[in-house]
């Protein structure tokens, strides 16, 4: 993203090799090699990092996921970070675990870590990491010139659960169960910055610095209105842990970006308080919605966002944001009003990008033509986030995936069932309500193209290549590369389900629905807004349908909209990088998170 300069050179130590020989009764890891004592001298601020000898052939038994049994670890090693004898400066450092190699069967939620200094303990999952990637373990540790050492113990293990399928780590060649890595320290002289990254701030303010203390939701069959508003899940693209807000969360506000141009659309209100959007001021003032006709935004207006969730490791982490307007109490929390696409009777137009037209018995994923709504969002992003003279675009994560899941429900075959009344897409199987069309499973997923169980199982009639074509991203390694010019898209219906929404059920207390006015109400007033999740092809109605979210008429309900006949409002979604520092705020509407952006 941006160049970072450290006065200290990276310090590398503790080479780990964990070879896991597995039977049904126990895991047998072998630790090969000893860690080296490394002294890297920068001439300004010096640290040593060293480890004790590593004992080979440790045997450990599988343990329940909720248990930490100290006799059951695969790898355990003590090491120290110390001030070099010739150093006379205070300093600050962070520790990361860098992956040299990792087997496929370890890229899952069961591969976990713990690091402790004896007082503070951090735990988490190493799911989703690949060779060359890293996992931040501890950040912003102060060490004075008078301090001799900081002592740490690092632990790696495979967790066991008798309630979830983890057969993948019990099978395969030995190479698929092998991990090698090393510890890296980055630091600088002086005191530690009081600023934390947005991810760190989110975890700290939700009492989630220890992953094991964060709850998981298990019931998505009803709209969520509970008092707990911060959760985790591994139902993700790479099985890594993701944290998300649900229900009436009030601490997920972010202030990021400033408008460079005026809106080209106008919004007005009628005597009942409902609103309508127009392309000209004269159309607004001459209508029955002529009260307070104003542009949706003006150059110089601030942009406000709501945090949806953190992103998967495979996407480079970071934080996903849903646009919320130019103030926290607005009822105009959208950028435009638009149809999703231009044709209603052709299945290809369910796509965020379209293939050729005239398709009747296949879903065309060639992604050659932008949808109507993609054109609206891209133009807005280019004019206001990517605009010359600002750095906002530098902070937007280009590896983030936005899922336009065009997989067909596993109960149907598109080619042979085309003449059915309705042909539901995969998302219906996860969040839909009608069992006739494969619904009532209530298991949303952040992974793109999974079946009704929502976890780790993909639609059998879909190839990896097809799923990748549905993963809209600026990056063509993790996704389809079709967002290279504008890394922005829409929220998915699954993400709304995680946030507390449900198909055919209202939720007037959900954060994605509400603004922060003294009497909170719909952030989009009476206006419905789009997701990018295909819903179904409605053969009898000659329509292609995507999921959308209701405004005040059916508060926060996950509903549906015909792509060409419906003109709903547009709420973009972006993802920002994981290492952006928070300069002020606590996430509340009164004090939204503000970020340290370069001028």
Account of the 3D structure:
The protein is mostly beta strands. The chain is built from 6 helices and 33 strands. The strands form 9 sheets. Strands 12-32-33-15-19-20-31 form a 7-stranded mixed sheet. A 6-stranded antiparallel sheet has the order 3-4-5-10-7-8, with no helix packed on it. A 5-stranded antiparallel sheet has the order 2-1-11-6-9, with no helix packed on it. A hairpin with a 4-residue loop joins strand 27 and strand 28 (543-549). The two termini are 15 Å apart.
Short description:
This protein is mainly beta and 599 residues long. The chain contains six helices and 33 strands.
Average pLDDT rating: 82
Which range does the strand content fall in? 25-35%
- Largest beta-sheet details: 7 strands, mixed
**Order of strands side by side in the largest beta sheet?**
12-32-33-15-19-20-31
Give the oligomer, counting copies of the same chain as homo and different chains as hetero: single chain
Helical content stands at: under 10%
How far apart are the termini? 15 Å
Q: Tally the helices.
A: 6
Structural Rg: 25 Å
Shape: globular
Query: Regions with pLDDT < 50 over 5+ consecutive residues?
Result: 1-46, 51-73
Explain the layout of strands and helices.
Blueprint: E1 11-22, E2 27-31, E3 38-40, E4 47-51, E5 75-83, E6 91-102, E7 111-116, E8 121-125, E9 134-143, E10 149-158, E11 178-189, E12 196-197, H1 198-205, E13 230-233, E14 242-245, E15 253-258, E16 266-269, E17 275-278, H2 281-285, E18 291-295, E19 302-310, E20 319-325, E21 336-339, E22 353-354, E23 369-370, H3 372-384, E24 402-403, E25 422-424, H4 426-431, H5 464-470, E26 471-472, H6 493-498, E27 529-538, E28 543-549, E29 558-562, E30 567-570, E31 573-576, E32 581-584, E33 593-595
Parallel strand pairs: 15-33
Antiparallel strand pairs: 1-2, 1-11, 3-4, 4-5, 5-10, 6-9, 6-11, 7-8, 7-10, 12-32, 13-14, 15-19, 16-17, 16-18, 19-20, 20-31, 21-30, 22-23, 24-26, 25-27, 27-28, 28-29, 32-33
């Amino acid at each position: 993203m941006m160049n970072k300069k450290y006065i200290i050179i990276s310090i590398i130590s503790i080479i780990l090799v964990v070879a896991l020989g597995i039977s049904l009764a126990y895991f047998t890891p072998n630790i090969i090699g000893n860690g080296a004592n490394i002294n890297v001298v920068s001439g300004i601020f010096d640290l040593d990092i060293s480890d004790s000898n590593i004992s080979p052939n440790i045997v450990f038994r599988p343990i329940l996921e909720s248990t930490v049994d100290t006799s059951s670890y695969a790898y355990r090693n003590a090491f120290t970070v110390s001030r070099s004898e010739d150093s006379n400066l205070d300093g600050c450092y962070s520790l990361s675990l860098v992956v040299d190699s990792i087997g496929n069967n370890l890229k899952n939620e069961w591969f976990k870590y713990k690091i402790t200094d004896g007082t503070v303990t951090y735990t988490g999952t190493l799911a989703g990491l690949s060779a060359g990637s890293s996992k931040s373990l501890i950040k912003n540790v102060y060490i004075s010139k008078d301090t001799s050492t900081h002592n740490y113990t690092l632990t790696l293990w495979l967790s066991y659960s008798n309630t979830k399928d983890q057969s993948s780590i019990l099978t395969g060649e030995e190479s698929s169960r092998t991990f090698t890595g090393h510890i890296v320290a980055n630091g600088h002289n002086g005191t530690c910055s009081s600023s934390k990254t947005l991810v760190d701030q989110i975890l700290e303010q939700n009492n989630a610095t220890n992953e094991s203390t964060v709850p998981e939701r298990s019931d998505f069959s009803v709209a969520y209105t509970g008092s707990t508003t911060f959760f985790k899940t591994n139902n993700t693209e790479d099985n890594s842990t993701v944290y998300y807000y649900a229900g009436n969360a009030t601490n997920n506000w972010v202030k990021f970006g400033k408008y460079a141009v005026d809106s080209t659309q106008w919004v007005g209100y009628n005597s009942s308080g409902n609103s309508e959007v127009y392309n000209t001021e004269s159309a607004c003032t001459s209508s029955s919605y002529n009260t307070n006709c104003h542009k949706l935004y003006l150059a110089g207006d601030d942009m406000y966002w709501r945090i949806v969730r953190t992103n998967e490791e495979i996407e480079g982490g970071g934080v996903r944001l849903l646009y919320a307007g130019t103030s926290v109490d607005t009822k105009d929390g959208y950028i435009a009003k638009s149809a999703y696409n231009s044709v209603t009777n052709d299945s290809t137009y369910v796509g965020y990008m379209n293939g050729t037209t005239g398709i009747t018995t296949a879903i065309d994923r060639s992604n050659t033509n932008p949808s109507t709504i993609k054109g609206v969002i891209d133009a807005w992003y280019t004019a206001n986030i990517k605009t010359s003279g600002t750095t906002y675009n530098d902070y937007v994560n280009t590896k983030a995936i936005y899922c336009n899941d065009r997989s067909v429900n596993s109960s149907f075959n598109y080619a042979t069932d085309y003449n059915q009344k309705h042909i539901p897409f995969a998302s219906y199987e996860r969040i839909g309500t009608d069992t006739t069309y494969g619904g009532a499973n209530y298991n949303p997923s952040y992974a793109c193209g999974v079946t009704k169980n929502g976890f780790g199982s993909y639609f059998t009639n879909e190839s990896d290549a097809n799923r990748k074509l549905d993963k809209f991203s600026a990056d063509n390694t993790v996704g389809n590369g079709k967002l290279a010019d504008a890394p922005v898209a829409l929220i998915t219906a699954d993400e709304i389900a995680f946030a507390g929404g449900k198909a055919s059920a209202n939720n007037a207390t959900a954060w994605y629905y509400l603004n922060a006015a003294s009497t909170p109400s719909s952030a989009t007033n009476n206006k419905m807004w789009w997701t990018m999740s295909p819903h179904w092809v409605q053969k009898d109605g000659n329509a292609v349908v995507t999921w959308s979210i209701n405004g005040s008429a059916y508060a926060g309900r996950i509903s549906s909209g015909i792509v060409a006949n419906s003109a709903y409002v547009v709420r973009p979604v972006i993802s920002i990088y994981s290492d952006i520092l928070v300069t002020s705020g606590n996430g509340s509407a009164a004090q939204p998170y503000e970020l340290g952006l370069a001028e």
